[in-house]
Structure formats: C-alpha cells, structure tokens
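PROTOCOL LOG
Step 1. Enter all chains and additional molecules of the complex.
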Amino acid sequence: MAEAIELIFYYLVFPGLAFCTILGLVLSFIDRKVSAMVQWRVGPGPGQPFFDVVKLLGKETVVPEESWARGFLAAPYVAFGAAGLAATIVWLAVLRIGGSPPGDLIVVLYLLSIPAIAVIVGGAASGNPLGAVGASREMKLVMAYELPFVAALLAVVFQTEDGATLSLSGLVALQDQAGSAMGRVSGVLGFIAALLCCQAKLGLVPFDIAEAECEIGEGALIEYSGPALGFFKLTQAVQLATLPALLVVVFWGGMGPGPAGVAVFALKMLLIVTIFVLVKNTNPRARIDQALRFFWGPVTALAFAALALAVLGV
Amino acid sequence: MALSPVFLKALKRSPWVFHVGTSGCNNCDIEIADCLTPRFDVERFGVKLVGSPRHADAMLVTGPISHDLKGLVQQVWLDMPAPRVGVLVGTCACTMGVYKDAYSVAGPADKVIREIDPAARFVYIPGCPPKPETIVMGIVKILEAL
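Step 2. Run joint prediction.
Step 3. Record the structure below.
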C-alpha cells in the first residue's frame, strides 16, 4: 500500500506531472526570452507561460460540429498523461531514486511517441481539412525521426562490451564507472543525431511543419480551444522538461551528488535548451519532404555511424 | 458573465490576437506588424498573434467590411471561444471613414458583428493608420479596463 502511494506521488507530484510541468513552463519562458533577445526585443516576463496556461484553462472549449468529439477531447489528456509518465521514469533515473526496471529505456521511447500520436488523432478527429493536413505531416515527421533517434540511443547501449543494459539507471551507473558516453566519438555523434531528433520531437522550427501557424493555421491544433489546447501546451512543457533530461542521462551521465551535482545537471539542461532555441531562431521552416530527406539521409547515417563505432568500441 | 479573479488576471497578461484583414488598404496591417518589431514589442504584455481564431481572445479588425466578407467576419467571431473582445484598428474599421455610404461595404465591424452577437464588446483605435504608439496605448487601455 505504502509502495503504491509512493508511486502515485512520484507520478503526480515529484518528479512527475507537477514538477515537470512547472520546470517545463520555466524552460519555455527561457525559450521565449532567449528568442526575444536573439531578435533584439525585450520579450515577455517570467510569468508569461503560467499566465497563458491559466488563461487557456479558464476559457471555453469549442467542439466543432464535424468532429469526432470523444477522440477530439480525449487526445490532449492522453498526451499529457503519457508525457508525464515518461517524465517520471526519466527523472527518477536522473535523481537516482530506486533502481529502474530493465528495459525502461524502451518504455520511455514508446511513451514519448504517444503525445505525437495524440496530436495525430486530435488533428484527424477535428474535422478540419487543415487539421488533417497537420496530422498527416506529424505522421510523416514521426516516421522520419524515430529511426535515427532509436539508433542514436542504441549507440550508447552498445558502447559497453559487457553488460549492455536497456535500463536508464543502469546506463547512469555504467557512465559513473566508465565516464560519460560523450567521452567517445560514437557518443558525440549519437548525441548530435539525438539532439536533431529532439528538435523535431518538440515541434520546434525548422521542424514545426505539423503546426506551421502562418501556413496551415497551427495544423493539428487548429480547432482546439480552452482547456484542451491548454493541456497540449502543458504536454509540450512536460516534453521540454523531459527530452533534455533524457539526453543528459543517456549521453552525459546522471546527476552528481549534492548541490554541485544539481547545478551541473541544470547547466547541462540549460545548454541543450539554448541550443534548441538558437537552432529554432536561425533556421526557416523546412518543407515536409525536406525534413523527411534530412532525417532519413544525414541524420540516420550519423546515428548508424555512431552505432557502428560503438559496436567497434570507439 | 462572472469571471474568477485568477482567470481575469491571467487573461489580462496573455491576450492572444487573431488578425482579420478585411477590404482595407493594408496600411493598418503594416502598422500592426510594426507593433511586433523590437521597437514596440507587444509581446512584453503577453500579446501574441495566433493562426487560428479558436486560440484567440481578441479579434483585430482592419479595413471596412465589404458585402463579400461580412459572412466570413461573422463566422470568425463565432469561432472564437468566450470571453472574446473585438479590437477595431483604423478609421475604416471604427466608422468606415471615406467608405461611408459606399455601395460595396456592409458597415463598420462593430455593426456587422453586433448583428449576430448583440453583447459583443469592442475597443476602438482610430487613425489612418493609427501609429504603433496609439495601438500599444489602446492595448494597454483595454487590459486595464477589463
């Protein structure tokens, strides 16, 4: 019983939904502020993402007549729940709470693709032609980035000759012994490939093709309003708090002991988020065919090169 | 409609705007684009241009509304989730300006929208075109008045 309560606490409060939502909103403030600085503007205040979300939660939800209402309304909550579960597993490994079960890396990979699937379902259920276009683009994008993403993460798994593990805390423990995966060529190549995939997973420019606001009016999210839209924004925030943490855990070692360890981990995460934001602000949006070619061409080649080097022990 | 104070505070700090350009001369639209530039930067107040009326709290109308566009403007207004407000930028949207009594126009935006939603509320920012400073002042004024 106590164990169950502990698990529920992990999922709902810390380090799951509540913690990651707040962290993600703070990170999305950093995103907007750095964007503003790049564009020589002042930018919004630190409370801006919180005001946006509270406002959306208070507004009316309009359900279009042509939509499949049940799927349309369920999608954002499914996305939020799945993203929160992925966040819990990743952050438990970050904080070294308990030993994560074998194979939780695979679970995280699946959970991280559920928000994308929810966007596809929501967009297709909205009954809006532009929403359908957005859903179709999201589908192509998922197919484009999942293969190199998995290959890049596997590179780290195959780096260790003996005792290859698919558990996140196992990877952290191995990196404690043998130094971080980034210390090797294969780790660096895999990190770059995974970074590019995460850019697309987060739906940031140049891969915001599925929600191109000036082209297909926010794409799959076009018909969403009020709390439903708010939960999609919260899902994005949770993902923004999860994916950089996953990258750090897999490629760059876990959180060290004491306040110094927390500070170093925070700096690593901030660095990754800043790279996302700078790439976002210096690139125009790609077309969907360009994105597909990019991910299946250079990025997949990079990821598989990392995998091959890892197997060879470089 | 009674609004909770927490929601109202958030709404004041985060008005998302959908821009409806009707049959205007494009001059006001350029001034609106100016508001987003580094010199005026309305994102400081949380104002964001959104691509879908479903995401919007305010509808920004520029230009006189022609008979062709009347139905579309009314549809966009109904697409916005409540609570919603109309912001009429420029003389044409406020009072029709030189297009008054012209054969091709259906009326100023407030009249056209009140035909379907008598309780609709509006903010008027006159000028031909209004300067970005005027638009920013108008935005600040409505946020205070909410």
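Step 4. Note key features.
Chain B touches chain A at residues 3-4, 6-7, 9-11, 13-14, 16, 37-38, 41, 43-44, 46, 50-52, 54-55, 57, 79, 81-83 (CB under 8 Å).
Strands of chain B lie at 16-21, 48-49, 58-62, 65-66, 85-89, 105-107, 122-125.
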